[in-house]
Amino acid sequence: MAQADARALANGAEPAPTDRAGRLQTADGVPLKTALRRAERRRKIAAFLLVAPLLFFILTFFVFPIAQMMWRSVDNPQVVRALPQTLEALQDWDGSDVPGEPVFAALHADMMADLERPRVAQAIGPLGIRLNYELSAARSAISRTARQVPNFEAPYRDAFMDSHRLWGDPALWRIIKREGRPLTSAYYVAALDREFDDQGNIVRRDENRRIYVQLFIRTILMSVAITFLTFMLGFPISYYLSILPMRYANLLMICVLLPFWTSLLVRTSAWIVLLQQQGVINTMLVQIGLISDDGRLSMIYNMTGTIIAMTHILLPFMVLPLYSVMRNIPPSYVRAAKSLGATPWTAFRRIYFPQTLPGIGAGGVLVFIISIGYYITPALVGGQSGRMISNEIARHMQQSLNWGLAAALGTMLLIGVLVLYWVYNRLVGADSLKLG
Length: 436
Fold this sequence. Notes:
Helix content: 55-70%
Mean pLDDT: 87
Largest sheet: 2 strands, antiparallel
Number of helices: 21
Number of strands: 2
CATH superfamily of the largest domain: MetI-like
Shape: flat
CATH topology of the largest domain: MetI-like fold
Number of domains: 3
CATH architecture of the largest domain: Orthogonal Bundle
Distance between the termini: 51 Å
Strand content: under 5%
Oligomer: single chain
């Protein structure tokens, strides 16, 4: 420090201020390290305040809804809230036959206590909805009995069994005992086309009731097919755009982006007009003699229509990453390979194509992830064979109101996408993605 001060004096400059221990200070006497830490802290606080609105938006409208969805897939408060005394009385029940009088007396006490609550706080209604997910007609049994229960007199077992036949079915009581916990796995069991048998074991459902696993497989296969088709169509388009002069490339890029400026509903409706049996495409094929009037192709309200419409809608998501990568590949590389004796195919395969892999990876990930959760287009043109898992999730949320099962299906879809992305990252590497 003394040498630094000596050099400063020799150069005619004032020596840096120091404290008694020889540590550097600022002009106002604050240790330099402390001042630097304060400045760094202020810089971090300022940076955090700049991104705080975006962070708040992401947490409020993205992270919190996803967390709430995942929680709803295991949340199970209905039975616990409505039948606390009944569940306690069922602890010693072996599940082989209809419970005895003490259990029915506890059920009567629970129902009477619920009727004394304010209407908005009553739990019998949600209880019937929850049990109906597991056993058909359970909701009608609960609602009918709730209207009659004030008139019941001991022995309550006979009164309940006379009010509805389900109270004499041990299956209903097994469901009440099994679901009498604050958390449940029943929604995930149903989402995997499984169910609980009389002994509480998880078994496969009857074949005519297995729909969700098949829908997951169909969704993945259709997403892979759409990704492949967008690649096959988007690669030559992107290559042609990359070798054109900029003014012509910009003009054609407007044509590629034109679908973004048109309503998704309008684009999907246009495909309905084009693909239906009396539509434009079938009529042209009949007029040129490729098919007969009785042999018109069925290209709508099935898987074919879904794939065609979604390929058209998602094509720009493949073209844009490919074009951004191809535009930056120097043409001299391919010319150098040809000058060294490589054929055009060899130069493309070994020189040009490997350099486009980051764009292919980015476009493939974008198209696949978007298509795997698509809803509007499959709902309009998919019919039965072109439906995807997202349509079933929407049906449970809007029609059956089984939000727990919808949340379980959505959580499984989310986890599946994350697993596929993890596999892609392990095999290819997410750092190789190039979006522009």
